[in-house]
Every structure is written in structure tokens, then in C-alpha cells.
Amino acid sequence: MSVEIKVPVLPESVADAVVASWYKKAGDSVQQDETLVDLETDKVILEVPAIRSGVLKEIRFEVGETVTANQVLAVIDDTAAAGSQAPASKDTAEAVVKASKPAVTPEEIVPVEQIKDTPSVSPSARKLMAEHGLDLASVHGSGKGGRVLKQDVADVVDRSDSAVPAPPRATPQVVTTPPPAQTISPAQLKTETPADPGERIEKRVPMTRLRARIAERLLQAQSSAAILTTFNEVNMQPVMDLRARYKDRFEKTFGVRLGFMSFFIKASVEALKKFPAVNASIDDTDIVYHGFFDVGIAVSGPNGLVVPIIRDADQMSIAELEQAIVAFADKAKNNSLSIEDITGGTFTITNGGVFGSMLSTPILNPPQSAILGMHNIKQRAMVVDGNIVALPMMYLALSYDHRIIDGREAVQFLVTIRDLLEDPSRMILGL
Fold this sequence. Notes:
This protein is of the alpha+beta class. It has 3 domains: 1-82, CATH 2.40.50.100; 110-160 and 184-206, Dihydrolipoamide Transferase; 210-429, Chloramphenicol Acetyltransferase (2-Layer Sandwich), CATH 3.30.559.10. The protein contains 12 helices and 19 strands. Strands 9, 12, 15, 16, 17, 18 and 19 form a 7-stranded mixed beta sheet that branches. Strands 1-8-6-3 form a 4-stranded antiparallel beta sheet. A 4-stranded antiparallel beta sheet has the order 5-4-2-7, with no helix packed on it. Helix 4 packs parallel to helix 5 (150-163) and helix 9 packs across helix 10. The termini are far apart. Mean pLDDT is 79; it is low at 82-118 and 164-183.
């Protein structure tokens, strides 16, 4: 019987998707729940699995083609797996099995424990391994349970490229006709080495759906909101002292490290409660005040910036926030964020400091009205009680929509966050 593999139902905010990659070709056998194809939307990568075991009979959309919900991507013939011949007698069947089954030596038998411990491989990592001819034994998985991630494969490729001596200088040639356009993945761009250091190379790479969507939303934010940014600075010594005092016990108790982001989320939620306009959004001519606190955390993933949402952050403890942050970071790195993970949000925090940024003006994440920017922590000379002391200082930036947030509210919102971080016990006591 033929089984149709269809495009899954897409949310209202996602109109269509693009076929990113096929993991099987027509005529290949497939197993139930095995990933067949990746679909790239303007938000996430969707993995479409096989709903039956069998043989991939037909592929109806090639890589790069646009598809919509419920369109048939492929057809699987599930009768090919079961066979169409009439059942033979028991004695005949046993004889056929014995004759066709190859002999297995004791050395070839793999222990059950070894099979159980074999790490899984993400689809993007599997694709990159195939492109570079790598086997599983050469890659160490850093994901949960030893799962091999795309970055793990990229690291192996980088090391192998650095170990290969540079090729001899090629003789320049005159090209009279331009070469055909090629679609080159970011991973290929990263790993390719120019044949001639003096050669002026130019490559045209199509935008991914996610990158195009990011560009669209950022341009929308710039053109449809009255964005203004206010700055402040915070002494991080109290938070750093608190982390140093409890980090070992915290990690042992909750299984995650105590970072800075959870303190900023807690402080932001308290400030949002005091200044509801910062947690609001504009809908046509109405202002929508949200009675909940869904905080987005900007994360840099393999395909670009994504903002997973920590919902009801006001009801979560520091430990629960840290666990949620780690879970989302792993999913972003592995390209496994779902539509639900990145939809919604009432306020966003972005941390450019992890990349070394000292100061920036973050852009709003529509339809939100404000975004908090964290930056690098640097020892700076500060005057405290008339004395000059070195303190670990961080610049804070709050970009906001001036149409609904006044300057006074924005400044006081940022001052509230600063005061809470410089005395973190107030957040614990609710003061």
C-alpha cells in the first residue's frame, strides 16, 4: 500500500516552508520514525519522519522548492518491506533463512551494552559528516547522552583542514565565461580554503528562510516603531560574590550551573511588574497590557538568531530558570527548537557580552515594546565613598518603543534592574 508523507500543519504565522534537505532518495528503504526530510520555515527547521517502514517510492518536491501545509512530499510503499510473495511452509522458510543468512563470527557480535551506548546523530550533523566523508568513530558527541551535534562535526572538519598543508600556488587563468551559480552552505564557506591567497574570490549564497525572516523583522522594527535607547551601568560584584559562595552547592543540588542570565530575568520581571507599559505591545490603535511575563532569551543558533520563550518567568525559581536556559540553548545548538518554543513573548533579553560586546543598541523584537541588552563585564575604576576602587562593571542598554513608553518610565525601569542586581537579596525577599 502507498503511504503519503505530507507537510505538517504549520502555525498561522508560518505561511510556507522550503525543502532544505532529503536524507533518502527514491528507491531507498526507510524505517518508521526515521527522518526523511528537513523543512526550513522562517522560524525553525522541521524534521519530517517516515510514518511507516518500507521503500521510498517517489519524491515530489526537490531541495529548494516551496511547500505548504498538507502537500504530499513523498510516497512510501510499505508492501515492499513486508514482501508480496505467498507464505511458504515452515520447513521451507527455515531453509531459506539458513541459506540466505551470512555466517557471523564471534568477533562480529556487538554486545548489547555497546549498542545501547552508541550515540545518536542529529540530521544536520549526519549531513555534514556525509559531505566530508567522516565516520561516527571520528566525532565525539557533546550533546545530551553523547548525541553528535553539527558543531561537533564542524570542529573535526576544522581540525582536519588545519592539518592539511596549503596547496601549491596555482597559475592564474583567464575566465571568459562566469561559472554557474552554486548554492553553498555556511559550513562549506567556513571550511573551504582559497587555492590562491592572491585570488579575489566572490561567492553568492542564497539567504536561508530563517535569515530572510530575521532581516524582514528587523527592518519592520526599525520602520514601524519609534525606537530609543537608554543606558546605565551596574556593579556586578554582589551577584558574582553570591555565585561564588553557592555555585558548587547549587550545581550539585539542581544539576545546572548558576549563571548570570537567571538574575537578569528575575530583575527584569520585577521591573516589568512596576512598569506595565514596558511589558505591553501595540495592536493597531490599541495598547495591549499583558498580565503575564513571557521572557525571550536571544540565542545564536547554527542558522541565525532565535529567541526561545521562557513562559511565566515570574512563577519560576532561579534554578528553574537556569534549567530552562540550558534546555533551550541545547535545542538551539541542535536545531531542534519547535514553533511553540519561539512564538510569543512579552519582553526580550539579549547578551552580546558573551561575544565581547561592550556597548550596543539592541533592536526591538516586534510586537514587543522593549528589549534589554547585556554586555561584557570589565574591571573599571569607580569612586565609592570618595575612594577609587576597581569594580566589575557592565553597561546595560534598554531599547524601547517611545510611542507607548515615556523616557521617565524607561530610565526608571533600567534603574530598577540595576538596583536589584546590586542588591540581589531584594529579589529573594521580594523588596
